[in-house]
TrEMBL record:
Keywords: Metal-binding, Oxidoreductase, Zinc
Cofactor(s) demanded: Zn(2+)
Keyword match Isomerase: no
EC number(s) on file: 1.8.4.12
Gene name tied to this protein: msrB_2
Enzyme category, top tier: oxidoreductase
Protein name: peptide-methionine (R)-S-oxide reductase
Alphabetical list of InterPro entries matching this protein: Met_Sox_Rdtase_MsrB, Met_Sox_Rdtase_MsrB_dom, Mss4-like_sf
Residue span(s) of domain MsrB: 62-182
GO molecular function annotations of the record: metal ion binding; peptide-methionine (R)-S-oxide reductase activity
Length: 195
């Protein structure tokens, strides 16, 4: 059986080469050098970030230092609410004096301009010059009046009602004002800071 013998001899001859090749490949994998790009891991350390001293940091006060308001006052003056009719402390007041803004002390109305309208709120047919600004109300119908200096809500103004010769009614919430009797010194006005 010369063919069989020749195949066995060929295997005997080839086997050492097969072993050598496999060892070489295996060895190559094992001997793979460490990549030169691999860098040594740096130990992690807690980085100390300088902390700002919040206790001594003062926030710049950009708001004017108006008179502090009670929640009831703020509801009308800042949130444009309306006092219930007939409950305001100045509705029927007739004393001579000046009505000033409760938030910033700006003089708004003289008592000579006050008249009885029976509407339930203090009524004036004129304001102190330059003290009151008018804006169209959010409802688009009424005219809102605000303090010219601080923008605090005062009430609404109506015209053409024929209450007085001036034909104007400033319908003002008592809680938006403070009354200073005649002869008493007016407190200084707290100026709104300009931008
Ligand atoms: Zn004001």
């Amino acid at each position: 059986m010369p063919g069989v013998t020749r195949r066995i001899n060929r295997l005997r001859f080839a086997t050492p080469y097969l072993i050598l090749i496999s060892v070489c490949c295996f060895g190559c994998e094992e001997a793979q050098p460490t990549s030169p790009l691999q860098v040594e891991a740096t130990p992690t350390e807690a980085v100390s970030v300088p902390q700002t001293d919040v206790k001594n940091t003062t926030k710049p006060n950009v708001m004017p230092k108006f008179n502090p308001l009670t929640p009831e006052e703020a509801l009308v003056i800042l949130d444009k609410g309306t006092e219930r009719p007939g409950v305001g402390e100045y509705t029927t007041k007739k004393d001579p004096g000046t009505y000033i803004c409760r938030q910033c002390n700006a003089p708004l109305y003289h008592s000579e301009s006050k008249f009885e309208s029976h509407c339930g709120w203090p009524s004036f047919d004129d304001k102190i010059a330059g003290a009151v600004d008018r804006h169209t109300d959010a409802d688009g119908r009424r005219i809102e009046i605000v303090c010219h200096n601080c923008g605090g809500h005062l009430g609404h103004v109506f015209e053409g009602e024929q209450f007085t010769p001036k034909n104007t009614r400033h319908c003002v919430n008592s809680i938006s004002m403070r009354f200073v009797p005649q002869g008493e010194e007016l407190p200084p006005m707290i100026q709104a800071e300009s931008d």
